[in-house]
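User: Here's a structure from my thesis project, written as structure tokens. My advisor, Dr. K., wants to see whether a designed sequence matches the one we expressed. Can you design one independently, without my sequence as a hint?
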């Protein structure tokens, strides 16, 4: 099993993360999901599981168009649709990713924990509560919402020199050095405002003989982090939207959007 712990730092305070994330999902659902592409929200409902009480969501990421054109014709949609099931009981969230065509041979789980972040206090030693055996193979990587490749696909997700007073986001400094996943993002070192961190530990196990290591590396370093990176950039870049809304207004926006899309038809 490959275990990679991604640390994503956001340029706003801890209490704003849940409404910001809800707004982002609803807006992407509204703007992007057409012709079988983008994010499709299947289910959104409250759940109770022991001491956990939160929101369960089931989303499908339709990414067929992002496969290189010269091989896209040969790959069915069933291999490029990622189903995400998430159990969010902030500050803890559990996520499961499934590619239906490979369901019996792939296991992708993500444990997520959110914390307030300050440069003085840094990170907890074991933020995702891994076992000793898991810690022995854990790899820590920092996700840089400003300068990490691939470059943003939208202008409103470009975050160098971005600021949003309505959301309490100070000026995000433009980076001067290349992205390095092993060290804290450069913008964080020079940022003056409040911050929080969302730690996502990806646990991936593939049972495809001869391709196990290659696919596990791709999913934990490229594919799944790419999905998370886009969402992190959208959360921040759309701060002017959620920053001026009350929590009740965001809940209404999410509910209205879900009802609208629930009746849409998506290609198989």
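Assistant: Designed independently from the structure alone:
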């Amino acid at each position: 099993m490959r275990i990679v712990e991604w640390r994503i730092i956001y340029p706003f305070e801890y209490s704003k993360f849940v409404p910001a994330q809800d707004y982002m999902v609803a807006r992407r659902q509204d703007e992007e999901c057409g012709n079988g592409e983008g994010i499709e929200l299947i289910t959104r409902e409250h759940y109770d599981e022991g001491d956990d009480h939160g929101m369960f969501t089931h989303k499908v990421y339709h990414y067929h168009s992002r496969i290189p054109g010269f091989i896209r014709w040969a790959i069915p949609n069933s291999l490029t649709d990622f189903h995400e099931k998430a159990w969010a009981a902030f500050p803890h969230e559990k996520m499961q990713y499934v590619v239906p065509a490979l369901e019996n041979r792939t296991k992708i789980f993500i444990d997520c924990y959110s914390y307030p972040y300050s440069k003085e206090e840094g990170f907890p030693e074991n933020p995702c509560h891994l076992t000793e055996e898991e810690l022995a193979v854990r790899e820590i990587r920092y996700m840089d919402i400003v300068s990490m490749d691939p470059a943003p696909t939208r202008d409103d997700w470009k975050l160098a020199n971005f600021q949003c007073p309505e959301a309490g986001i100070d000026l995000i400094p433009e980076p001067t050095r290349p992205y390095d996943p092993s060290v804290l993002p450069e913008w964080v070192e020079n940022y003056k405002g409040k911050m929080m961190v969302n730690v996502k530990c990806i646990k991936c196990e593939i049972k495809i003989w001869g391709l196990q290591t290659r696919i596990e590396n791709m999913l934990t370093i490229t594919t799944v982090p790419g999905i998370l990176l886009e969402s992190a950039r959208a959360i921040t870049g759309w701060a002017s939207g959620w920053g001026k809304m009350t929590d009740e207004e965001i809940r209404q926006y999410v509910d209205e959007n879900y009802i609208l899309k629930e009746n849409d038809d998506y290609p198989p």
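When you compare it with your expressed construct, this may help: The longest helix spans residues 212-237.
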